[in-house]
Amino acid sequence: MNSTNSINQTAAAQHRKPKLGRLQGENPKVGIRPTIDGRQGGVRESLEAQTMNMATNLANFISSTLKYSDGTPVQCVIADTTIGRVDEAAACAEKFRREGVGLSITVTPCWCYGSETIDYDAQIPKAIWGFNGTERPGAVYLAAALAGHTQKGLPAFGIYGRDVQDGGDNTIPDDVQEKITRFVKAGIAVATLKGKSYLSIGSVSMGIAGSIVDADFFQSYLGMRNEYVDMSEILRREKLGIFDQEEFKKAMEWTEKNCKINEGPNTNPPHKVKSREVLDGEWEFVVKMTLIIRDLMIGNPRLREAGFLEEALGHNAIAAGFQGQRQWTDFMPNGDFSEAILNSSFDWNGIREAFVLATENDSLNGVAMLFGKLLTNTAQVFADVRTYWSPEAIERVTGYKVEGRATGGLIHLINSGSAALDGSGQQSVDGEPVMKPFWEITEDEVKKTLDATTWFPAEGEYFRGGGFSSNFLTKGGMPVTMIRVNLVKGLGPVLQLAEGWTVDLPAEVHKTLDDRTNKTWPTTWFAPKLTGEGNFTDVYSVMNNWGANHGAFCYGHVGSDLITLSSMLRIPVSMHNVDEAQIFRPSAWASFGMDKEGADYRACGVYGALYK
């Protein structure tokens, strides 16, 4: 048997149904459980239509309002019948298992039998919406069911409208919609993470703690697995041509037209300036590297057609990190181009869902990026939390007195690596800069984003092997949330966040400040929202209490969504500037004391990791 026949037979033996998306499995569905008073002979019969209408209306609201990160509407599964007794609850659970439900919402307008009808699945987020009406005691069931959840160690979120509704009112009040939306967004994120991989390409970068990948954290708290490949795998695939050759030609043409044309001046000293021939070779290499890293993450069926069956599979990675420094970058082109392009919402194949690729293999910042992406469906910006510039220091260095949101000073967010180009703020709504989900981005916005990005030859003092670093200046006026996950020995993971805004500075002021750091890297001037207390007393306190050298920011003020998500994963929040009225956690957290942040720590400690 010749080798070609052997490969063909192996490929045939491994034939399977194609993936529906980038990763294995379907998107998690929202399970809706209409519970009802089980007493036959008049009571149950009188409530059947109202109860099932609540479920149907809720499903319609969710599917018409929310989307998965791939842009498709969130799908709901409703129990086949109302749930009045335990047999019906069990039948519902079995249906949810078959249908791929990842979170559940129980709805009812009336009294039901609490512990007989609640959702007992310990690993999926769950909420109960008790209708606020006077005809039947929906609120009484809500309280009884939540008490059962708390007593049994199955935390659930309680949803109860502020205003009384009439019995025949099928509308969903605004405050209920807000809580349902927050719960579903966070619950979808939890369910999406489960079973996926974080792929480490390389190992620890320059002793950065976040790149010391903690597999127990990923497994126990996120339900994820860890995959590892050496950086030499990129070199192997490049040398042996294990990438889509036709796509490389397409990608190179696109890069020539949109990136290489915007190559910036070489800022290296004369003895480190490379020839045009060498730089052209580096452009080709970083494009190949981008294809290879993507294929390592999610696979590529085109490789199967070329006979590379193992390589075609990928690692089912929802996120990855590339070590780079220094064992790679001391002799090979850096990963900046690959990280920036993959994290953006477009490439040579058009507008598409952003990837998550953490520079320096900072897995904890990669998780922060994942949280932000899954909650907002937008690209994420990875950055060094580099410098606090006080108003006095800015004025001393530039002669400019800051104003507006910059009055308290600014934090300089800058890093050579994986800042999504979306972060330049060239997308817009009503003339204001934004970062959009990919399905809302226009081709004109892509062009503006690329035109606003300069690709500088890498600085030799950092990157001896060359490559190219993206440079852009984020437009001011965007609401953003900066996020970080940290690991604390003896405590476990904690999350910190800071809502704030991007800020514009006069061009000459920006240049003076930026040139003091690195003018070849992307810059965002960030002004956190201050509360006048604790870690948010002033901008200096935010910088001084940030838990690591890196952070990631996403578009919008989504701190409340992050707090809800963290509570589902049993990760306490160590630092935030969210109004207390916007905090939404499982009802059991109220049993751990009246100080919300202390209660969060105590509850997470008692319940422990979601997948322990």
Report on the architecture of this protein.
- The structure is a single chain.
- By secondary structure, the chain is of the alpha/beta class.
- It contains 19 helices and 22 strands.
- It has a six-stranded antiparallel beta barrel with strand order 12-13-20-19-18-21, surrounded by four helices. Strands 2-1-3-4-5 form a five-stranded parallel sheet, with helices on both faces. A four-stranded parallel sheet has the order 7-6-8-11, with helices on both faces.
- Strand 18 and strand 19 form a beta hairpin.
- Helix 8 crosses helix 10 (276-298).
- The protein is globular, with a radius of gyration of 26 Å.
- The relative contact order is 0.10.
Features:
612 residues; globular; five-stranded parallel beta sheet; 18% strand; alpha/beta; 22 strands; six-stranded antiparallel beta barrel; 19 helices
Write the layout of secondary structure elements.
Elements: H1 3-13, E1 29-34, H2 43-65, E2 76-78, H3 86-99, E3 101-108, H4 114-117, E4 126-130, H5 138-151, E5 157-159, H6 174-193, E6 197-201, H7 215-222, E7 225-229, H8 232-240, H9 245-258, H10 276-298, H11 301-305, E8 317-322, H12 336-343, E9 346-347, E10 350-351, E11 357-359, H13 363-376, E12 381-389, H14 391-398, E13 410-414, E14 427-429, E15 432-434, H15 443-451, E16 454-457, E17 468-471, E18 479-488, E19 492-502, H16 507-515, E20 523-528, H17 539-545, E21 550-555, H18 559-569, E22 573-575, H19 596-607
